[in-house]
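Fig. S4 source data, part A: sequence.
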Amino acid sequence: MPEAMPRPAEQPPDRTAERAGRRSWYRRPPLRRILCLLPLLVVGVWVVQHRSLIGSGARQVFTANPYWLLTAVATTGLGWVAVSFARQGTVLERLPARRLFATQFAAGAANHLLPSGIGAGAVNIRFMTGCGLPPARSSAALALYFLAEATARVGLLLVLFVAFPEALRLGPLLPESVSGTVVGGAVAAAGVLVAGVALIRPVRRLVVTFLRTALADARSLHTRPSRALALWGGSLAFPLLQAAGLVAVALALELQVRPAHVMLAYLAATAVAAVVPTPGGIGSVDAALVIALVAAGAPVESATSTVLAYRFITVWLPLIPGALVLGGLVRSKIV
């Protein structure tokens, strides 16, 4: 038999390129990896800056009735469900339910990094764009959500105020010296905005296109009962659940104010605090809630304790988990 040819010795794999790739990764991290870690870094800075406020809220939570506190936690979670329904109601396309809910949970963390809901809006626009919606329709859906949520919140406020006119003195919420400045600034800003839209042709064309898209989508949505129910039902349920959470914390701390008055105080305070665009309402919402509860008849100390505990549950407790979810969504290219 012919002698078998010897097999050539296997050469060890050349790992030079792999080692160079690793060195390049350590020297130059990808932008998406940085964006995944950025929410955690910003949240860590916020926690350090507000550690005394978080500690005060935590101490109030640990000494309160645990069953009512669990109710407040449950209403907070249901609030994200309500927002998910409202967001789904702004588009005709069916959005993936689990990803939609995770996006709303993560948007809560993003909302505390930028003022006036900009963070949550940016996260939702990225999510809807990733689901295949054009940027113009995603922006129109965002505007429709804000309009529905504001209409529902103001409507609930008016209904409660008519039902309980003696519950709240609105004067202490916004002092007269401050109200004149705020109203004047709002009128001036509105005038500048209207003038800019009217005089600058590219801006005018952009605004007209946006309004046409938004109105067409709104008409189409209201021909679908399921979408209209999701939009308005979620928009009504969200502020009701938020107010119910404050009522639960007030009951846990035995605040001597009627639940309906607490709900009215919450809606009035959040309406006034919206004028001051702070990230997540930190500072503006806290102060307005304390003043509103005092105007509803609560002692200053009890009102402050209630607000600290409520904000600990609704803001600080889900902040780090929300940042982790946000980082995961960015890493998975969902947002």
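Fig. S4 source data, part B ends here. The mean pLDDT is 76.
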